[in-house]
Amino acid sequence: MPAAGAPRDTPPQRRIAHLDMDAFYASVELLRYPELRGLPVVIGGSRAQQPLLLADGERRFARLRDYAGRGVITTATYEARALGVFSAMGIMKAARLAPEAILLPVDFAAYRHYSRLFKAAVAQVAPQIEDRGIDEIYIDLSALAEDTRALAQRIKDAVRAATGLSCSICVAANKLLAKIGSDLDKPDGLTLLNAADLTQRIWPLAARKINGIGPKASARLAALGIHCIGDLAQADATFLQQHFGRSYGRWLLAAAHGIDERPLSTSSEPKSISRETTFERDLHPRADRQTLGGIFTALCTQVAEDLRRKAYQGRTIGVKLRFADFQTVTRDLTLPAAIDDAQAIRRAAGECLRRVPLDRRLRLLGVRVSALSTRRAAADRAPARQQELLFADSVETPID
Ligand code: DCP
Ligand code: MG
């Protein structure tokens, strides 16, 4: 019998786009140094790598081979990636792979500026946007009448007109598929995924291409013989739940079948405010106790200043530690009332630190405040002060 239309319980098909800027930090740098186009360029230096303007008007750029230090690459141009250089790689290691590559310092202010520009340009075309960070957004196109490909192209054109930068975009039925898809045709990609593409284009991809399957989960999946998304889709539901728990097991299977009902979260409220720092050299919790204590206090002070500037306070205080072997550990503590002052954050973060065995060298320390609320009238803030007292007699923290 011919259907009179879509069955009633089938929600209308959504059109969700994921847009991700191409080699973002590097591309912003190329806007000001166009002479570097086509060359391997790596972003990750600091002031010492600032290009020098010579008397003849030419610029002298730092090369990877001259770098000494502990810096990490934030991103690299596609020409540098072709030499094996990638985000998060130590600059010294990259220098062995691409000694001639140009090294530029990181300039977050410039990247934030271009981030705002491209998001504003997209909002002119399609206002339903979920901000996912400095260089990526989701866009809900469902309410717009225009043909999908034309709309996606118009968004790309708007981004280029506003910034001079290229991006890659995918439109699919949901966020999960759109996110996978925006990476399929980078750089300058425009990808449309429909239901038939699931088996053809998604299933052959490695399971870790699903946002939410991290290195640990993908290693466990691999140990069970599940390598690509198609393997996962064919896995037995009970088997997955046995190995990964009920909720994650279920989610894994749904994800492999391209099912994802999450709506866009279009609010621009931040989820957390944090500060972290990677040390020049690894620091030992005991031998470098004083240095670490100073850094820890400074991080708490910075977070408190960020909170106050943005008029937020938070109930959950967390710490992040990365050990010399890159193992990362986080601990958090939820307080009965939200706080925003440095001392109270310092005490709560100190409590968190006490729950981490501090027996190895550290390379990174971070402090995060989440469960944010907007700051209310001063009278409402009394509980925060009482909270301080609660911790006033807390035992000293290991790196005080
Ligand atoms: N970034 C970083 N450290 C990382 C990864 C990324 O500092 N480990 C920064 C630099 C990137 C930006 O975030 O330019 C965006 O990250 P992407 O993963 O989107 O990487 P790119 O935009 O650089 O490249 P792609 O074209 O693959 O998106
Ligand atoms: Mg990007």
UniProtKB/TrEMBL annotation:
Q: Which residues bind Mg(2+) per the record? A: D20, D135
Keyword presence, ATP-binding: no
Annotated Gene Ontology cellular components are: cytosol
Q: Which organism is it from?
A: Accumulibacter regalis
Give a yes or no for keyword DNA-binding in this entry. Answer: yes
Catalysed conversion reaction = DNA(n) + a 2'-deoxyribonucleoside 5'-triphosphate = DNA(n+1) + diphosphate
Just give the chief location class.
Answer: cytoplasm
PANTHER family per the record?
A: DNA POLYMERASE KAPPA, DNA REPAIR POLYMERASE UMUC / TRANSFERASE FAMILY MEMBER
Q: Write the Enzyme Commission number(s) for this entry.
A: 2.7.7.7
| Descriptive protein name | DNA polymerase IV
Which residues of this protein are annotated with the site description Substrate discrimination?
Answer: Y25
Q: How does it assemble?
A: Monomer.
Q: Where do the UmuC domain residues begin and end?
A: 16-214
Provide the cofactor list for this protein: Mg(2+)
Q: From the UniProt record, which GO molecular function terms apply?
A: damaged DNA binding; DNA-directed DNA polymerase activity; magnesium ion binding
Catalytic residues in the record:
E136
